[in-house]
């Protein structure tokens, strides 16, 4: 049986998180997928062309069709919605949800959108019965650390050293958690 997740929507004061449509590729290319600073701590590489971005959009649509909370982040503007990134989470067990990644374009960092995204994901998880929400970040990703700290997450544990398959750089993942009451 195939579950239809097309109606999943999470909204904050400035953002709407929902499933993407193919036409979003252009805004995502301009705002995030062509921007090297966006991919620095992620396990994806930037798109070097519009064609690569269109191919990524097809993969995104497929992934989002299979994962309930794999969503595209849209900024509410006077002229409509602008696709600025992604946010995703999944249920680990009935009491625990975890983030699967939050990424917004560099022009949208430092404006409180990350906090809105993470807090909204936690609230949705709580509504679904979660008692804990787990996050992680690469140890050198200080922006993600600050975001998780600001949203009330506490240190849980560190991973063993890993190797980034894109860059061959060594890194450690810091895992955090927050109790949802």
TrEMBL record:
One of its GO terms (molecular function) is acyltransferase activity, transferring groups other than amino-acyl groups. Keywords: Transferase. The keyword Cell inner membrane does not apply. This is GNAT family N-acetyltransferase. Residues 30-181 form the N-acetyltransferase domain. The lineage of its organism: Bacteria, Bacillati, Bacillota, Clostridia, Lachnospirales. It comes from Agathobacter ruminis.
